[in-house]
Design a protein that fits this description.
Largest sheet: 5 strands, parallel
Shape: globular
Order of helices and strands: HEHHEEHHEEEHEHEH
Distance between the termini: 17 Å
Bound molecules: 6-phosphogluconic acid
Oligomer: single chain
Number of helices: 8
Number of strands: 8
Strand order of the largest sheet: 2-1-4-7-8
Strand content: 15-25%
Helix content: 25-40%
Length: 233
């Protein structure tokens, strides 16, 4: 699964850099992508084919914790990938989960995206590649079932209160996710089989299964799923 994702990552990175001299990727958190990140860094053949100094790293979401916290999506990507490849620190755009107010981190990241992508009001950033995972409850990024962020249509980044964690998550919003040029969902494991069938083959109920709200207007979605997760499809 990770090797298939890595092959896609390399192809899309090379294509973007060839076309415009840069590659913008929004990383996902959680545990599934960890192997992908490690492969990109540790497999010398793969690593050598990526123009690391032309890659701009963003995150699709972040927990409301400092960057050295075990739950930090930044920390996971830094340990697995960023600390091992010649990415330019200036090209790594971290969501500041350490701020006491999650809304401060969201507002700052919103501005970071507007500045980097040179956005006029009402416009949305278009990532070359958006990596997404899917939780056992069908959430993606930090768009959790029944949470406010599902309905955000203007802001780029919001602090989303998630009752079951009794904490905020900072997350890109649906219009930003759906403006990506390419989206790869990486889904692994038996526990994802049931929600994956609901998301892909069940009735449309994005409130309950937020991954269903991912449908880019001008972009592609690739679902990379292992056998245990695909068991019920
Ligand atoms: C996060 C992720 C989240 C993740 C899913 C799946 O911050 O946790 O961005 O959306 O992709 O929860 O997580 P696993 O890959 O660990 O199952």
């Amino acid at each position: 699964l990770s090797r298939a994702a890595a092959t896609e990552f390399v192809r899309q990175a090379q294509e973007a850099v060839q076309a415009k001299g840069a590659f913008t990727v929004a990383l996902s958190g959680g545990s599934t992508p960890k192997n992908l990140y490690a492969l990109l860094a540790d497999d010398s053949a793969l690593r050598a084919t990526i123009p690391w100094d032309k890659v701009h790293f963003f995150w699709g979401d972040e927990r409301h914790v400092p960057p050295d916290h075990p739950d930090s999506n930044y920390r996971m990507a830094h340990e697995a990938l960023l600390s091992k490849v010649p990415a330019l620190p200036a090209n790594v755009y971290r969501i500041k989960g350490e701020y006491p107010e999650a809304s401060h981190a969201a507002d700052e990241y919103d501005q970071t995206l507007r500045k980097f992508f040179g956005l006029a009001a009402g416009r949305f950033p278009r990532f070359d590649l958006l990596l997404l995972g899917m939780g056992p409850d069908g959430h993606t990024a930090s768009l959790f079932p029944g949470t406010a962020a599902l309905h955000e249509s203007a802001r780029l980044v919001v602090a989303n209160w998630v009752e079951k964690f009794h904490s905020h998550r900072i997350t890109l919003t649906p219009p930003v996710l759906n403006n990506a040029a390419s989206i790869i969902f990486l889904v692994s494991g038996e526990e994802k089989a049931d929600p994956l069938r609901s998301v892909l083959q069940g009735e449309e109920q994005p409130e309950r299964f937020p991954s269903q709200s991912i449908s880019p207007a001008q972009g592609t979605v690739l679902w990379l799923v292992d056998r245990p997760a695909a068991r019920l499809l």
